Amino acid sequence: MLKKLSYIILFGLTLTSCSDTLDDINKNPNATETPLAPYLLTGSLKQGADLYWGSENNFNSSLLFVQHWAKIQYTEPDRYDVSNTSFTSLWNTGYATLITDLNTIINFPDAQANSNYKGIALTLRSWTFLLLTDAYGSIPYKEAGQKVTAAYNTQKEVYTGLLEDLAKAQSLLGTTNGTVTGDLVYKGDVAKWKRYVNSLRLRIALRIADKEPALAKQAAIEATTDPAGVLSSNNDTFKFTYIASPQQNPASAWFETRDDFRISKTMVNKLKEFSDPRLPVYAQLPSDASVGTYVGGGNGLSNSDANNQGFAKTSKPGTYFLTSASPAVIYSYSEALFNLAEAAARGFISGDAEALYKNAITASFNQFGITDNTVISNYLNQAVVKYDASNYAKSIGTQKWIAFFGQGLDAFTEWRRLDFPVLTAGPDTVLDGKIPSRFFYPGTEQSLNGVSYQAAIADQGKDLLTTKLWFDAK
Amino acid sequence: MKKILNRYIGLCILLISIGATAQEKQPLIQSKVGGTVIDAVTKEPIIGASIVIKGTTHGVQTDFDGKFYFQTGQKLPYTVIVSYLGYKKREFTINENSVVIDLTEEQNQLSEVVVTALGISKEKKSLGYTTQALKNKDIAETKETNFLNSLSGKLAGVRITNSQGDMGSSRIIIRGETSIAGNNQPLFVVDGVPVDNSQLGSVGGATRDFKNAIADLNPNDIETLTVLKGPNAAALYGSRAAHGVVLITTKSGKSQKGLGITVNSGITISQVATLPSFQNSYGQGSNGRFSFVDGKGGGVNDGVDESWGPRLDGRLIPQFFSNGEAVPFVAHPNNVKDFFNTGLTYDNSVSVARSDEKSDFRLGVNNQKQLGTVPNSEVNKTNFTINTNYQISKSIKVGVTGNYITTNAPALPGGPQGNRAAGVMLQFLWFGRQVDINELQNNRNVNWNNSYYSNPYWNAYYNTTSQQRNRFIGDVHLDATLADGLNFRFRTGVDYYNDRRKYTIKYGTNGTPFGSYAEDAYTVNEQNTEGIFTYTKKLNDDFSLDALAGFNIRNHSDANNYQKAPRLAVPDLYTLTNSRDPLTSSNTLSRLRVYSAYASAQLGYKNYAYLNVTARNDWSSTLPSNNRSYFYPSINGSLVLSEALNLKSNTLDFLKLRGGWSEVGNDADPYQLATVYNFQTAFDGNPIQTSSQRKLNENLKPETTRSTEIGLEATFWKNRLHFDVAYYNTNSFDQILEIKTTASSGYNSQLINAGKVNNRGLEIQLDGSPIQTENFKWNIGANYSRNRSKVEILDYAKQIQNYTIGSSGGVDVLASVGQAYGALYGTAYLRDANGNIVVGENGLPKADPTKRVLGHYTPDYLAGVTNTLTYKNLELSVLVDASVGGEIFSGTNRTGTYTGVLASTLPGRGAENGGLSYYYPNNNTANGRTLVNGTAPSGVTVYDDGMIFKGVYENGTPNTKVLSAQEYYKASYNISEAYIYSSTFVKMREIKLAYNFNKSFARKLGLEGASITAVGRNLFFIYKDAPNIDPETAFNTGNAQGLESLSLPTTRNFSLNVNLKF
């Protein structure tokens, strides 16, 4: 009997197979420890575009602040009635997804990523940091991704650092430095990437132009004299083109199930004032055919006042922006020309500011499919459109504001910097008549990185929407 | 590892061979005696009583009929010692054949036997820690569909939280939360088999609060439920027992003489218990205006899902059902209540049991059909159970238990938070108070609002969550007597289940116009194989030894496969291929294995002093190889002072002092060592990889929990009063924490070994019988427990001050250094130095930009009192329980205040409610509001819903700015402080009336026994602070408690149960 018993026990133990070692069992079967550079690149481009063009940073915040779009219901963000949980995705996705993934590529051994991958990753990382500092002000930059509680750097430190990073990116990129796949924007065309890098340097040069003119001038010269040049046609525009659901444009996905945005009355009225042929591209006619004209929604209205404008009697943003495959434009050729115009106007570089200004508007028209030269020249010849050399900020600011339609974050930054067009806060806004000058830091910074956060706001000013950032001189 | 295994087998074989040499010797026969042992009161035979001839080791046991037989070398007369657990030991002199020995039941604490770790029965007096047990009737008669709820208020130190509605989960916490981030619920062991109690797929804000897995058990099958509190009691179970153990023994056929059939039948009626209190003076709309055209903004405010519209005074307004015709705008005060049905649960079971000398068995089947309070919700559950043992030889017994549970829920009610397609309370707190629910019930294709929702009946009938679950729990076990006092037990057990959920959203649902379909499937497999040697020896007259050594091999795996068709191609066909888009899918597999070896010993001195030591070593696959092995010991002792110091008197029956120290280690979840990258849906043929945003840790160490406990137990006045008090102090170190980090660190979270959490607590149990006569008895059972927790250290570098356990509506639940566990952290009003709320120029309160701790979810203390009155065969018991202290953040109040549906938004709305009269000069709203002082200028419209927020401007002068009531009640939406409430409550938990028919009466009906029970549960609140909600609710069984948002109402249950024994 006891013999039988020991057999039974031995049998029982064999039920628990011992063939796998404990180490084997703990090998994660669900994900990989070794990512590939092209897959990380594709992910960074896609997630970066979603972040830039999605609701939280774009049409539910910055696009409302600059009065490109308006809310027709649930108007809280349009009235600036928001909290420090409202702007978390730019921070969280920006750092923990984009910057981390791009750093992974940058830190790869050469066998895993050639120097072009690293140059592209460094460029995209610089773009991400730029979005962050433009929106929040001081941000963790030098210690980002290095420490659990990273210290913040001032805007001046960040912008200066990014200029150095982009110079390095330029040196990493070279047409003979290896092929790049997974690049959904430029399809591995390294020459275009080199032009994009210079264009970003030019953008940053103007960001600091009011505060550090000498440095700005030097950066503008470096950006424009680099042999690669800046974006030179609409084919060079840095944009991410979506396809069909579920990989559709975020605004298109939003409008599929919800109906709470209209084009802003401010934008419609400005386009009407300028007889701007972009109006039918930017706006749809109200669904109630009896209205027969483009009607914008008021910004900063109470929910019921917004509602009472009538869903059928107001214009939605144009279908150009709301189809599945609508592109997320991140740096247009038009912007590059506006930036050159301003650099010339400021005397940073040589060039005809007026001609560049006109070319910039023309590039914007072309971008939105308006190519008829007569239409364009008629527009350019209007007194209200003509370049005003005595007030380049007004001409460039106003036209840039129109050309940036849909690019909320950059429109918001350039409006703060150039202070044109003059915008008025809506009647039911909650900031005593002011328009936000920045985003709140995510509320979680207080609990997770409290010491660094307190040091940052002690330097920059209270963590309020109305606190002016360093670059925003006026 | 093989080496260790070989060692086990070697040890096993060695002990078997020792046993084999100890063969019985046949003595010279001098006498042959037979006899019977019976219960002195019932005269029923006692099976398995031990009879030992005094002064020898020669002993026998009574058989199935209570009979025993001796043939020995002893001459008559001789004395035998007769003993049986739970009865007084008796010496009896045999001087003739065919003796009858009767034993009296022992009523005092000296002989009480309890089940302890690994299922070993021990005398309670010998233990240095607390255990507490419930019997079948405490659990089964409550007719709770989640039997954990029946534990509420009955056990000291045990906190039950019924998360949601009538088909949701329940959370059980013993002695507070000791783990910052991990599971804090106890280990469940059913008949020696560790079983799974996870709540799959219900993490933060999911659409559905699925039942926790232990709720599968059929309470009718439970014989006893023993709670081992804290690591002291549970050290032998190791890792998973740091939060206590719930040991469940199911019924067997052992005590059933001959064939017995039991039929049990019950019916339960459930009503929605705690609905918000709604206002019925104002209907849908905004700024007093509303008119319906299409429900999505085509009319006047008809897309608004709030009740700031016109007065409900019967004025004529087009409404959603009137096809444009203006009809009376009136209140429907019960429009939410009437949506809910009366729930019905049918519960029927039959069991057959039998035992004889060699074998016993019990077979049972139970069917439960529950029709919930949310329309269309239904759960069907069937349990099949078998429990059988067979004596294959004199020294070897084998047995099998099996429990097959099949659950089929065609539709479960939608969950909390923001699911517009399936959420129930979401729509009722964003609601028009004029809505006639009958119109919605009559036509599911119309709705009161088309901007956000579909008809609630459409949601309930078409947007469903179904669940199908098949589970097997069982084991094979063997008990062998190897030698005198040396026994071996071997067991291999399994808990295996498949759980498939299907989520349908119908084509045409507002917000999900193409509908959707998803399948979510889980497979869980938990296997444990153990071998235990036990050795019992009386060393001499004074000392006894009780020792144990064993091993366990644990394998656990769970797999998940999720697929979703995000937009259907054609309506009403719910397949994964009926999709416009590529499917979204994910699958995961998780496995772990733990090898363990353990031993314990108990040394007893003269039946009144005991010392217990245990030791265990685990080797876990989830830890890095250099930290994989971890050892932990425990020691505890008990001293029965009443015996040792001879303190027994007429007053004092029993007095015991106990104490212990223990350490328990714990491992990690699988795959926490290497940081990984995830795949996302490929873009146009380009694969996407991205950071998992979690930085893992290749140097993880095991967690350690150290606990000390002391206790005192006493009984007085011949067991009329029993008193037990316990104090414990538990420190948890090196916790494996996935701390949330600022994204600027590169990750949203990092895994660290960190922290020290301290929990201290006091538990008191009192049991008394103030009145006890032959026919009437009054018994009071009371328990009180308090637990104080403090998070002392998070990371050793002291960079991290807070660990985020969960979040909802802007409030974080934190483990914050220096605070009690579960701090509610959020936005407060901005206040001046005098504590006044600061308002802006616009008269609206300002939020303090610095967030702060607004409360804690952990209660100060819990208490429960059960009064039981017994008159002859009739028993009435009343349980009142209380949870005092702690706070809850209520999303229901936050939303309902914003939308103006709650009765609490009435003050100030209209002159009759104290509203101030104001006008806009020249009727121009741009001129702002001016209070009417005397009479208003002629020609201006006067409004009477003016309110002033009590506060001061930044310069300190009082606020005078007039707001409309709508602005006033919306002003605090983003200020969490406004919606934090005390979660204190006192609840009439249970009233039970039971009648047991006389045996003689039952026999006349051809029955062995019969009883009938009526129970009311969750009857009403005797006291509560939080308005509009049941403060006991939570989202799920996770650690992020203290948050409530639009949760399903809890239910009040009435049930009737008949139990017949044949």
UniProtKB/TrEMBL annotation, chain A:
Gene3D superfamilies: 1.25.40.390
Assigned keywords, A-Z: Lipoprotein
InterPro entries: SusD-like_2, TPR-like_helical_dom_sf
Organism lineage: Bacteria, Pseudomonadati, Bacteroidota, Flavobacteriia, Flavobacteriales
Keyword Lipoprotein: yes
SUPFAM superfamilies: TPR-like (SSF48452)
Claim: Iron is one of the keywords in the record: no
Protein name, entry field: SusD/RagB family nutrient-binding outer membrane lipoprotein
UniProtKB/TrEMBL annotation, chain B:
All residue ranges annotated as the TonB-dependent receptor-like beta-barrel domain in the record: 441-805
UniProt keyword annotations, A-Z: Cell outer membrane, Membrane, Signal, TonB box, Transmembrane, Transmembrane beta strand, Transport
Classification lineage: Bacteria, Pseudomonadati, Bacteroidota, Flavobacteriia, Flavobacteriales
Pfam families, per database record: CarbopepD_reg_2, Plug, TonB_dep_Rec_b-barrel
Family that this chain belongs to: Belongs to the TonB-dependent receptor family.
Organism: Flavobacterium quisquiliarum
Membrane topology reported for the UniProt record: Multi-pass membrane protein
Protein name: SusC/RagA family TonB-linked outer membrane protein
Compartment list: Cell outer membrane
